[in-house]
Amino acid sequence: MSRATWVVVGGSDGQLHQLDVTDPATMSFSVTLGDGLAAVGMPTMDLMNWMIYVGTDQGVIYGVEFPLPELEASDVKRPNAANPATG
Fold it and tell me: CA spacing 20 to 30 A to 17: which of 6, 28, 57, 85?
């Protein structure tokens, strides 16, 4: 999967989904949060710590390591540690 073709979204099905924006009908990966009964909100990305944080309708906030397990580390362009503005 290309570096710039995916998006991570919360779902009403209790899952955090990764979608390929070049083919939105194709779901690349999903992770069930908690018991899977609560809707998942909009995720926030913490690129300093490579985490995704997202809340659910049950009032629980989850942290998921980024990139999601399905992605290879080489698929994500991380900034240079010495100069975060470059990658």
Answer: 85
Tell me the residue type at 7: V
Q: Which residues of 57-83 are buried (b: 16+ CB within 10 A; e: fewer)?
A: eeeeebebebbbeebeeeebeeeeeee
Angle value at C-alpha 64, between 62 and 68, nearest 5 degrees: 150
**Which domains can be identified in the chain, with CATH numbers?**
6-71 (2.40.10)
pTM (2 d.p.) = 0.68
Query: How do residues 45-61 score in pLDDT, each as one tens digit?
Result: 898 998 999 999 999 99
